[in-house]
Specification:
By secondary structure, the protein is an alpha+beta fold. The protein has one domain (about 10-115): 3-Layer(aba) Sandwich (Glutaredoxin), CATH 3.40.30.10. About 40% of the residues lie in helices and about 15% in strands. The strands form 2 sheets. The chain has a 4-stranded mixed β-sheet with strand order 4-1-5-6, with helices on both faces. Strands 2-3 form a two-stranded antiparallel ribbon. Helix 1 packs across helix 3 (about 70-80).
């Protein structure tokens, strides 16, 4: 058996089912390139970092759109009117991509958008773009 990296992991029908089910059943879902442990683009990294800052590591469901990028673009476009990723949905409602999440964060209303009590969010625990804590001292 030969591995063909251009062959999608999911059919267009399977992608539609995954998108519909995730948006319907997950409180917060991020459609991203890669997954939370290994984002495959900077925008996905920014989105998952912000969402996890507010909801914790287990508070965000993720779906890897690289399983069939074109089919995911089409399926997501039906729900959001956008073809680009990442895309965040909260309680079935499209919130936006990484730039919109960052804008809500800067405006101080991201906690409300992602169903979190703003009093429980430590906005001082922000991390840099590499996902590392900004207050970690170098070992040398």
């Amino acid at each position: 058996m030969t591995f063909d990296p251009t062959e999608p992991d999911l059919s267009a029908d399977e992608v539609q089912e995954v998108v519909d089910e995730a948006i319907e059943s997950e409180e917060v879902v991020l459609f991203m390139k890669g997954d939370a442990r290994m984002p495959q683009c900077g925008y996905s990294q920014k989105a998952i970092t912000l969402l996890q800052q507010y909801r914790g590591a287990d508070g965000v469901a993720t779906v890897d759109v690289l399983q069939n990028l074109e089919a995911f673009r089409e399926a997501l476009n039906e729900h959001s009117g956008w073809e680009t990723t990442p895309q965040t949905f909260v309680d079935g409602e499209f919130i936006g991509g990484s730039d919109i999440l960052e804008e809500h964060h800067e405006n101080g209303d991201l906690a409300e958008k992602v169903n979190v009590d703003p009093e429980t969010v430590d906005v001082g625990a922000e991390s840099d773009s590499a996902g590392e804590s900004s207050d970690v001292e170098a070992p040398f």
